[in-house]
Queue: 2 jobs
Job 1
Amino acid sequence: MINRGESSVTVSKNLEELGLVEDYWAFDRYLCENGFDHSIGTGTYEIPLGTAEEEIARIICNLR
């Protein structure tokens, strides 16, 4: 679940803790470099293990 006001760093750390991304710092850098850091949507998402990081970014930014 992503709550209102959570930073991309917080979201990235949570995804790492869930085993969805390997390195929260690298994933957060990816989000920031590609402009996703300001588009993360609040809510609950179903992300299967093994989903590529690029797809995770699209999911949490509602770009599917």
Job 2
Amino acid sequence: MNGIPNHVAIIMDGNGRWATRQGKKRTEGHYAGYKRLKKTALYILGKGVKYLSVFAFSTENFKRSEEEVNYLMDLFVTAFKSDLGFFVRNNVKVIFSGRIKPLSDKVLKVMEELIDETKDCTGGTFNICLNYGGQAELVDAAKKIAIDYKENNINLDDIDMNNFYKYLYQNLPPVDLMIRTSGELRISNFMLYSIAYAELYFTETCFPDFDEKEFDKALEAYNNRNITKGGVKEKK
């Protein structure tokens, strides 16, 4: 058995599809997805996973309809405000990955409040990828290195595949298990550097239905594989 993965990442896909199948508006699917996320995130961290990263909103999502984008931004503000105490009570440290622009001041403010209020929590780290893109993250990391070189005269030969992580949006360990819901078989520009050796798990289940049992299925699949670490296969 491989046990519990240290870092799990989830592409939370299928909220709109879930709503459409039930004759509801896409926005209702996003709300259902957020309610599911709260429950499932606590369950995953409660299983012993130390880091959970979720794809909440991509840089490309700004191309969606104005109505849907505005709804999602308002949902982030409302949810982060109302659930600040929820994360503190459950001892969950919340951080964010992604670009600041073009997020509004009200979104950024509530993000900062959530980060500050949970910074001392020790029950697991919840990394919300908002206005995030994997290629954008690598470009921004390259810019950070260039600035570090110019301002601090760092030795470029000292940068390797391990310490490169500190130039990403968050200095987190590599992803061990990446899950995508709703049946799509794509990475969709998510955590490209961090998932280099991650086990990939795809499920037909749309995210609003991705409950504790569905995560346990993913965990069982993970534990039935020969895990790759640094390109070397380890036996089950």
